[in-house]
């Protein structure tokens, strides 16, 4: 069985074909970083227009690389939410139209379920149940996963997501967009211990996150200090250290609360080396392991949508002739498989 996956939830156009026996047959990813760099963040209207321009050509490239025709496919999966409504509508309308024109089932996919299942694309696949940490520019969530669709939300950010806090702090440091990866790279040259920022919401019970106050602490430090390059690196180190420590504390707490020792980490921020090292340390102490998608599948991509769509298609999920973009869509409302 083969399925085409289309991802257009924000500022990256991802297309892939997944075969349940061969795995990923072909994939393409177009990033709009250059489009939005002058604005310091994603401009929704520009994102939508770029998806309109890029989605069909990328689909044609992927089909050609896989040497497939529409009749060789068994379905078309597309991201239906959450995300930017205009960007979602582009992918939904193209995906649903192609499915109709090719007489194939159309499968709407939850963007965060795609991220959560992305480690299943690797050779070392985690067994259910496990705890998942989903960290991206728009989400920071801890989820107990007992199977596909069997999701229990354990905690989430009450304000800024971790990736959003990275990008905003990077902007305060004068770094180019997208600033999160640049800040992480700069932190490698930082002096440990020169600055210390709070570990928000770790001194109280529960598994929710808050990164807004941490960002404010970094902002106050930046405005107070003389910001030469070394000081910027030291602030970057302290900020990243606070985020890493907070995530580690909450993940350990979630694993202990659930009586589990397997942790899945996915989403764009999961590519952060410091986060990976710390969470590997946490799970090792519990006698378990941590699982990630490969770096190219940490960010938004079509492969994760194709894989998630394949699982939903096999369970009988398909859309009627209408389609709906859902910019806000809680993960724990999905039907279990």
UniProtKB/TrEMBL annotation:
Its EC number is 2.3.1.234. Its cofactor is Fe(2+). Fe cation binds at residues 111, 115, 300. Residues 24-307 form the Gcp-like domain. Its main location: cytoplasm. Keywords: Acyltransferase, Cytoplasm, Iron, Metal-binding, Transferase, tRNA processing. GO terms for molecular function: iron ion binding; tRNA N(6)-L-threonylcarbamoyladenine synthase activity. Substrate binds at residues 134-138, 167, 180, 272. One of its GO terms (cellular component) is cytoplasm. The keyword Acyltransferase applies. It is an enzyme of class 2 (transferase). Pfam families: TsaD. GO terms for biological process: tRNA threonylcarbamoyladenosine modification. NCBIfam families: gcp_kae1 (TIGR00329), T6A_TsaD_YgjD (TIGR03723). Belongs to the KAE1 / TsaD family. This is tRNA N6-adenosine threonylcarbamoyltransferase.
């Amino acid at each position: 069985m083969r399925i085409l996956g289309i991802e257009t939830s924000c500022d990256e156009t991802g297309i892939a074909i997944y075969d349940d026996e061969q795995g990923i047959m072909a994939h393409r990813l177009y990033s709009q970083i250059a489009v939005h760099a002058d604005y310091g963040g994603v401009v929704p209207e520009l994102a939508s227009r770029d998806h309109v321009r890029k989605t069909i050509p990328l689909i044609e490239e992927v089909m050609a690389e896989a040497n497939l025709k529409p009749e060789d496919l068994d379905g078309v999966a597309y991201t239906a939410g959450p995300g930017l409504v205009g960007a979602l509508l582009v992918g939904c309308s193209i995906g649903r139209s192609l499915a109709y024109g090719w007489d194939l089932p159309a499968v709407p996919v939850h963007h965060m379920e795609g991220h959560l299942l992305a480690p299943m694309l690797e050779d070392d696949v985690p067994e259910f149940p496990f705890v998942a940490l989903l960290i991206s520019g728009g989400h920071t969530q801890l989820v107990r996963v007992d199977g596909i669709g069997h999701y229990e939300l354990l905690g989430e950010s009450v304000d800024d997501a971790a990736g959003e806090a990275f990008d905003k702090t990077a902007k305060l440091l004068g770094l180019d967009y997208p600033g999160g990866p640049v800040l992480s790279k700069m932190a490698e040259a930082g002096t440990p211990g020169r600055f210390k920022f709070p570990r928000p919401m770790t001194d109280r019970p529960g598994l929710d996150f808050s990164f807004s106050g941490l960002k404010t602490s970094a902002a106050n430090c930046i405005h107070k200090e003389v910001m030469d390059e070394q000081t910027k690196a030291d602030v970057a180190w302290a900020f990243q250290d606070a985020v890493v420590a907070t995530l580690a504390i909450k993940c350990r707490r979630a694993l202990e609360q659930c009586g589990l020792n397997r942790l899945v980490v996915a989403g764009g921020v999961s590519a952060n080396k410091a986060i990976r090292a710390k969470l590997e340390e946490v799970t090792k102490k519990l006698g378990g392991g941590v699982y990630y998608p490969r770096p190219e599948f940490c960010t938004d991509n079509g492969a994760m949508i194709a894989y998630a769509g394949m699982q939903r298609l096999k369970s009988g999920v398909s859309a009627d002739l209408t389609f709906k973009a859902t910019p806000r869509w809680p993960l724990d409302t999905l039907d279990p498989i």
